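User: Last request for today: this protein with 4'-deoxy-4'-aminopyridoxal-5'-phosphate, please.
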Amino acid sequence: PVAPSPRPGLLDIAPYVPGKEHAPGVAKVFKLSSNETPLGASPAALEAVRDVAGALERYPDGQALALRQAIAEVHGLNRDHILCGNGSDELLGLIAHAYLGPGDEAIVTEHGFLVYPIQIRAAGATPVTVRERDLTVDVDAILAAVSERTRVVFLANPGNPTGTYVPMEDVRRLHAALPKSVLLVLDAAYAEYVRRNDYAAGIELVSGAENVVMTRTFSKIHGLAALRVGWMYGPKAVIDVLNRVRGPFNLNALAIAAGAAAMRDRAFAEAAADFNMLWLGRLSAALTALGLKVTPSVTNFLLIHFPDVDGKRAPDADAFLTARGLILRGVAGYGLPNALRLTIGTEEANLAVIEALTAFMEG
Ligand code: PMP
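Assistant: Here's the final one, the structure of the complex with 4'-deoxy-4'-aminopyridoxal-5'-phosphate:
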């Protein structure tokens, strides 16, 4: 070879494509493509950032103790079982790199988050994709796919981009039937939005098992996507392994301080969840009334299915909306070529979406 070449398989990875940011030529743009909160971050988090900004010459605390302590107190957990990451993306990557290698398999679901197969392949392992039923994870299909090579199962609950959720009873059943050697990763990035009595994001399951972890993020309801803050709760043995392979200062000081402040501002997060519930309901009703199909969602986004009619398909709607400054997420890469994902926005953005989709459907 004349040039350095990466490990076999790495060039088969399709890079992650983030949501669109721009609508060329349109002055006023609403970005509704990355499930960011329309309400910003807690004022307490912003103040914490300003405080830290006065001492940028100092390394951050490599243990992120203040952040782990805040999470532990608010959620009633032991901080030794918590690990923080540069976004939950980093934690998902650490898990893959620590628990997977060539010859191993990891199970993902049909419309699952695209970071999983990327990290599985990056670790040299093979993703095994199982079917979903009605855009919802099918626990029995996962169990049927388990082989002697299975090392990890990645399960987003709620799912992205579907917005659907798996009842805790099914998650418990999945865990009970999995071999003890398989690590079950419950990705609960949208946990704070879920209003279901049986939903516990997996906390209780982690507490009682050696092979379950739950990942969470500050990028959604806490409004800190720019700072990249994620956390996970897991057995001590798993945390210990990941602490060996992570970078020594994987969270920056702004992220640690802002995350801790945001976690303690529970009133802010609750108000954000209330706002989301209100508009999730209003948008679902309005879009359904237009004749669009909307997958019932427990998150801060809606999956909208377009008619299979010339001029009315998802790419047509995408172009129509983008021309009006409304940026949604195309989800063809998730196996959903005739749907768009809409993040709940400000009142102004949501009303603009309803108005534009009314014009699109009537046009
Ligand atoms: N998991 C799921 C299901 C997600 O939708 C996202 C955000 N797109 C993430 C994990 C990653 O979030 P972050 O890295 O910002 O914490």
